Amino acid sequence: MDCIEFADVSFAYPPVEGDVDAEGRQIVPQPVFDHFTGSIPAGFTSLIGPNGSGKSTFLMLASGRLVPQQGRCLLFGKEAALLPEGQKNLLASVIYQNMEFETEDKVADLLAQVYGAGALKGRAAAIRDEKADLLSECIDVFQLSGILQHTLTGISKGEMQRVLLAFALLYGSASIFMDEPLFAMEEPQKEAALAYLRDFVHKTGTSVYISMHELDLTRRYADSVLLFYPDRTMDLGTPEEVLTKDALEKAYGVPHVLLKDGEEDR
Fold first, then answer.
1. 12 CB-contact burial (10 Å; exposed 0-12 / middle 13-18 / buried 19+)
2. In this structure, what DSSP letter does residue 82 have?
3. Beta strands 92-95 and 175-179: pairing type?
4. Distance between CA 225 and CA 139 in Å, rounded?
5. Using one digit for the tens of pLDDT, what is the confidence trace for 132-167?
6. 192: Cα separation from own chain's centroid
7. How many CA atoms lie within 13 A of 248 on its CB side?
8. Residue 154 to residues 103, 143, 159, 189: CA-CA distances in angstroms?
9. Whole-angstrom Cα distance, residue 57 to residue 10?
């Protein structure tokens, strides 16, 4: 079943005032997508590719946070960008890069607020122990017990990312879009988070789309991979089908040996 459909989509960011070339002419950004048509299945999909290849823009268009200049972006058959805010959030949650919040509420209170405000209404069984509650399981899996009485301004970036992951699951949207949510987390925490996200997708039917640089973790946990090339073309398939030596060298423009060391450690 397809979850995301792009139909003849064109999108370019607007020119930035004052951004001029050496001759003083306004720089006009090139289109990120130009009459692009394609579909992405439901499930757990990892978006892989070099910086600037369009991964973040794809996530924002698919989740309805950006509107294409031409064409339609459908999520579960709906144009998410045209929906009222509440309906849009129930259809798709988004974890942006470097999210910040202006609140002095404690983590424990924020988790409860998000859990109660979304589709789950504060009532959902844990996915690994159906006798437990989803909130308590998220606190355990994302190692949040030690920061529950802290404010978001009083925790580290890695702790913030783990809180955001918990927010996304506890809200209960039909799909979740994550733009590099693992960047500040330690390796064991990344492993635990991805294993749980995979289990969550398979247990609940939620679709998760996650942009990340960790190729090895993508191979081990993703159902599908969307590989972005610098020329804006893409390959979609299983990790075994897509993450081949030739495809990765084409995408990143470096020998596979160097890519393995550089991309997975960045």
1. middle
2. G
3. parallel
4. 28
5. 999 999 999 999 999 999 999 999 999 999 999 999
6. 17
7. 24
8. 11, 16, 10, 20
9. 11
